[in-house]
Amino acid sequence: MGILKKALGEKHAKLKVIPLGSVEEALSVTTGFPYIDYNTGTICEDASGDEFLNLGLPMGKIMLFAGNSQGGKTTLAQQIADAMARQLDGDVINLDYERSGNNHELRYCKIKGCSKAEYAERVSVYKHAGMSTEFLKQIIFDIIEIKKKLLKKDMVEWMDTKGNTIYIYPPTFLIVDSIPSMKPQELLSDPDLDNNMVGGKMAASNSAILKTIVNLLETFNITIFGI
User: Fold this and answer.
1) 79 with 111: CB under 8 angstroms?
2) CA separation (Å) from 2 to 5, 12, 16?
3) What does the alpha-carbon distance between residue 154 and residue 169 come to, in Å, rounded to a whole number?
4) Mapping DSSP to helix (H, G, I), strand (E, B) and coil, where does residue 173 land?
């Protein structure tokens, strides 16, 4: 018994190559909220067999913040993204599909207690009229092209789930606010489209985008917080 498992494991271990900069086996990052960190944490075992806690949220994933309107979802996402980004010299990008106002800098600095200089260095906001679902895909591929040009010296020192030192891409946290407000370019450019078709086209477009990018997130350390 176990011969098949062992043989397959040996074969696929040879095929598995984790690219430099990937967070596929990286430790999670604490959020600044102990309740979240401990409830999402795991127990890992290092090379010596000693157990240790892996607290926080993993990078390179898609996470959904759901709840009632005005319930603080965006504020929480911003707080978590900023806390994680600060630890690893990362960036926070807000895709404001709701075009919620012009006071993002003031609000963000109050939430995080940061200066305007820190905000300008770390945080970007996109909220132009006509921003489509395809814009999410475009900005992700723009980020990937930039990160492909980085060298090992540009990587961030971190640890994997075995307690070993690894080098990962500086993280990028994309806050998509909000997913229900995302519309494909087809809908934005055709106001006369039958309303009965809108929901289906939005769902199909969002699904297609996610299928395109999901396998790239861990490789290039891009985390999406969907509202």
Assistant:
1) yes
2) 5, 15, 21
3) 8
4) strand
Going by C-beta distance under 8 Å and a sequence separation of 6 or more, which residues neighbour residue 96? 104, 125, 126, 127, 177
The residues facing 120 across adjacent strands are: none
Tens-digit pLDDT profile for residues 129-157: 778 899 999 999 999 999 999 999 999 99
End-to-end C-alpha distance for the chain, whole angstroms: 47
Number of neighbours of residue 176 by Cβ within 10 angstroms: 22
DSSP notation for 9-28? HHHHHHH--PPTB--TTBPP
The residue type of 78 is Q
Residues 63 and 175: their CA atoms lie apart, in Å, by: 10
Query: What are the pLDDT digits (tens) for 174-191?
Result: 999 988 888 888 777 766
Residue matched to tokens 């807000």? 94
Which helix (H) or strand (E) segment holds residue 156: the answer is: strand 156-159
Closest CA to 20 of 173, 152, 171, 215: 152
